[in-house]
Amino acid sequence: MAAKSIRKSVSFDDSDGDRILLDAIASHQSEHQQSFSDLCKQALHQYLLSREPTQSVMLFMELQHQMAQLGARVATLEDNTTIASAFSPAIQADSPTEQTEQVTADKDDIVTTNEDVKSADSDPVLSRLAPLLEDF
Fold this sequence. Notes:
2 strands; 5 helices; 6% strand
């Protein structure tokens, strides 16, 4: 007894998309000797029933992962650049050739000279940080 077959049809228009698809079908059929019916069944099965992600989905997921990693690296670099630029005037002022501060220790207290106060007043970063450092 022959199995009853169900027929479904596919219609193609004269649009660019349909023409490209028909050319791809013809090219695939000539390379793989596969009927249109078998090709449709295979494509539908893969599209509708396959639990495994396709190669394009896997590539897309990998690209998303790489973009997230790059975003994290950019954020880290931006943070480092912001921190470095905020302290660069203070770092340059502490260079040995420009160092004019004299600090003396007296029983766990640090005493600075008038030159330190003048240099802190002229440097906006140090003047903003000075009140915070007084608590320590």
